[in-house]
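Q: For a teaching session next week I want to show students how multiple molecules come together into a single three-dimensional assembly. I've collected the sequence lines for a complex. Could you give me the predicted structure tokens for the whole thing so I can convert them for display?
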Amino acid sequence: METYYKPKDLPKFAEISEGAPELAQKFFDYYTAVFTEGELTQREKSLIALAVAHAVQCPYCIDAYTQDCLEKGSNVSEMTEAIHVATAIRGGASLVHGVQMRNVAGKISL
Amino acid sequence: MSNLQAAEDLSSNLFQIPALETFRENLDNNGLDLSRTHCTTLQVNVGMLCNQSCKHCHLDAGPSRKEIMSEKTMTDVLELAARFNFQTIDITGGAPEMNPHIQTLISELAPLCKTLILRSNLTAIAEKKQEPLLQLLSDKKVTIVASLPSFNEAQSETQRGKNSFATSITTLKKLNSLGYGLPDTGLELNLVSNPTGAFLPSSQEQTEKRFRQMLARKWGLSFNNLYTFANVPLGRFLTWLKNTGNLEDYVLKLAANFNSCSLDGLMCRSLISVSWDGYLFDCDFNQALNLYMGGRKKHISDLHVLPGPHDSIAVSEHCYTCTAGSGFT
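A: Of course. Below is the structure for the complete assembly, covering every listed component.
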């Protein structure tokens, strides 16, 4: 296998149903419901999905939600800002654990 | 070989994509009919000359193009418009503002139809010398349909070229100051947002809502309606799709989003399109392929009866653009 990730594999996602159809059905129904317009617009949900896709570093999701964001009317500046939000939270999550480091260091230091 | 046969041969080979069903096959296999209804709209392309070279242009219009409608052909258009009772006459280009006879055409067409439309890129009309044209449009209550792909400067200029955005905003402010896009003035200003790449347009309703909020908030601008249209894979956009390796995926995406419900509202069913040299087409896109009205080459001066219900429409694979999603009207 020359690479683990192939763009042509993305449309095969639905085939995952073959292993456990009932669970897959529940998942895809839930997924569809999540992205339906609610208090948030579909465009806003797509931007959140793009940011999360970068946080979880999923190439399939990045490909799919880049296209989806553009087709929902977002521009590259907005999409970049969304990724910065994910980056800030991800980086912040590391940095805030510095408090634990400081607690431990404080406890055992003179 | 007849023109009709030539058109059909062309349609079977347009994009050379093996996985793509031809548009005609798609209609036939689904038992669908795409034929004409009553003709209500005359679309007039007054030339390929344009001050911009937009990357999505299906006609490859630009500053170096020489083809513009002559006074003689305009006379033929006026005679046609006087003979038949069109509800709407739609002037397009290129940049129609750059045709030297455009003011005469507008003045004489305005009384001949209920709605006269001028399609503007918002920059050709921005020049000082065009102020009399702006006043004429306002006096004749000509509806303006203006291109504005995005309210984001960088995104808009990737499609329409450097420095086009600020000029467009200035023109929109000027149009608003004349009463265009404002309530109860009778001066209609509609925007068109095409995607800035090889992807489908966003929902028209959502995009209109967002443009209305953002244009008002950022620049205090108003408009009446906004339309979202997919880019047609012809002309300069086709070249870009080929050069960037996007052609197959884009065309297959258009075909995968084929919506049979869009057929009823397609503009080609009720419109005739006249090219800069006076030939007749079922739509402006077919001009890019020399795909003549009903598959037969005919000049406007030879048109004695308008095409009517059940008459055929020349189609090819680019027609998947107008039937993708909610369609193209």
